[in-house]
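Re: export button greyed out
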Amino acid sequence: NAGVTQTPKFRILKIGQSMTLQCTQDMNHNYMYWYRQDPGMGLKLIYYSVGAGITDKGEVPNGYNVSRSTTEDFPLRLELAAPSQTSVYFCASSYSSPLGRGVNTEAFFGQGTRLTVV
Amino acid sequence: TQLLEQSPQFLSIQEGENLTVYCNSSSVFSSLQWYRQEPGEGPVLLVTVVTGGEVKKLKRLTFQFGDARKDSSLHITAAQPGDTGLYLCAGAYDYKLSFGAGTTVTVRA
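Workaround output, generated via the alternate export path:
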């Protein structure tokens, strides 16, 4: 019963390095999201996807890229890491659109990736 | 700019006291969700409210959706140390699920 799995759990990057945060879900969910969480700031949406092959920007997309080649996987790419990208990153998925009136709209979250850029 | 405003940001109370957390917006939502997050974990859904004026109860937690579907509240009766955590409200616009900044609740034994 894996749900949403994120790897790695922790990572330290040097300024200018790049990396990919992996996210996979085994619930056959159409909707997937990437959020970052900074202290006292709640969750900010980076990118989201409504299905394989379809992605769109959220509130804070600059410095990130995503792809969705399969229903299961939604990796987040950081190019040229900057200290401002130090954060905890969460991947989430849901079966239905969050616009749906409560039916199958629950977002399931991974355990997060704590990233530090030095 | 936060689409959903939560208040207060922090709340520290003694075990057995009651508390209320608010989630407000100028936008109308088809539904609002409340999540709870513990340190080192991802948020977990507590409830979804759908109908304006709706009240849902989950043991000692009572959730209310405003009549105009722009605001919601979470009330905890006789809080226990196990209620400690970050409480987040979330609403959808377009196909995006947007979260408030959260309320950190600490219940002292």
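The interface with chain A takes residues 2, 6, 9, 30-31, 33, 35, 40-45, 48-50, 88, 90-92, 94-102 of chain B (CB under 8 Å). The button fix ships in the next patch.
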